[in-house]
Amino acid sequence: MVLLAAFVCAACGLVYELELVALGGRLLGDPVTQTSLVLSVMVFAMGIGSLLAKHLTRRPATAFAVVESALALVGGLSGLALYACWAWFGQCRAATAALAALIGLLIGAEIPLLMTLIQRIRRQDPGRAVADLFAADYVGALVGGLAFPFLLLPAFGQAAGALLAGGVNAVAGGAVVLWLFRDEPARRTRLLLWAGCGLVLAALATAAAGTDAVERAARHALYGDRVRFADQGGQQEIVLTGAATGAGLRLYLDGRLALCAADGRRLQQALAAPAMAGPHARVLVLGGGDGLTVREVLRHPGVRQVVAVQPDPDLTALARTDPALTALNRHALDDPRVRIVAADPFGWLRAAASAEPPFDVILADLPEPGGERGAELWTEEFYGLAARLLAPGGRLALHPGPLGPGTAAERRFWAVESTLRSVALRTTPYAVPVGTPGCGTPADQGFLLAAARPTTLAPAELRAAATRLAARRPTPAPPPATLLRPLG
Asked: Is there a contact between 21 and 38 (Cβ–Cβ < 8 Å)?
């Protein structure tokens, strides 16, 4: 029974760890840093917790019940706490480090206390006892690690999954050990421990019942009163604000503004128009799940087929059914010329190299570069695969983001240009001023038109802007981005 408790507690501990990694990475958009922060802080804190547990081994059952009740409460509430910090304070990295340290301290105290309890039950060689305990601990970690992505996340979501793990942790760690070693604490202490375990379970159940209310309050703090749709999809949180008529329409993905209706058409026109100036019978759209890029493609006569590779099917479904979005994209995703493929763009390009005919135009409507999320979509490997799908005379266009002399965004822009040049594409950079009141600060948005042969930028008014922008190209050119050296 003690080894079973160790097994379950190890599974729950790994669920808390993965919760901090996954949720923090989604909120901050930097999963590599988040993973490193959580793992390093938690492992260090486990060592400190093991040292501190030496002072608790005189009453190991009582101490273990207290530790597990505290771990169940902190770990179970960690997801909600992290989300609340991000929503109300605008950042959650400090909260992530604090939660990782506290959870690590409590997990680190488990092993010395469990070892003492095992030795009380059955005197045996210390090496055998350590082997039994570590085997239960490691197998439990395997079960917890597999349960998190394949069971807890799909069935309960991140916050509710952590709360469920906390409840299991409280029962397995506190109640089982208190029942097995009920003679260790005095009667009054035992009643207090049982009451504490019950309060933890009640707190977790209350938090589970109030999870939706917390999420609604957090969204109100982030987006105001006009949240019309909110869903924690399989890949990202999708929030739509504004009226169903389209007034004030904004689309947020994981808390970041992805679409403002007043600016959407100008951005998509700037992306699509220069590339569509040549042959455009077959067009490939990578990303752009809101349907606006596809709408701009279909405005040009002569388009026979559009293949839209959309990584998030939840966003695509919303763009096909929401009245404001469908009015904005003009039901472009339902056009018979459009074939929607729900797939990761990188993986689809690898498979399509031998299965798809060439495309006259490729439009990459992807999240802006920066950080680790989606970094593979701005690499030499990605655009090398895309270049192989271009027909002779075909064009590729992309939008690396805003420009500003001397800013990190402009340095990333020229690094993206170097990446395109590294796969033997000729590039034409151009900028379009975008910024409608209510949609953010007006700024020049940078675009890149690339082809295997020299291209002429159209319409004519863009050529002057392109000449001015080309004069800002840094010398020497920044190195291209690769999977091993992504954009910073």
From this structure: yes
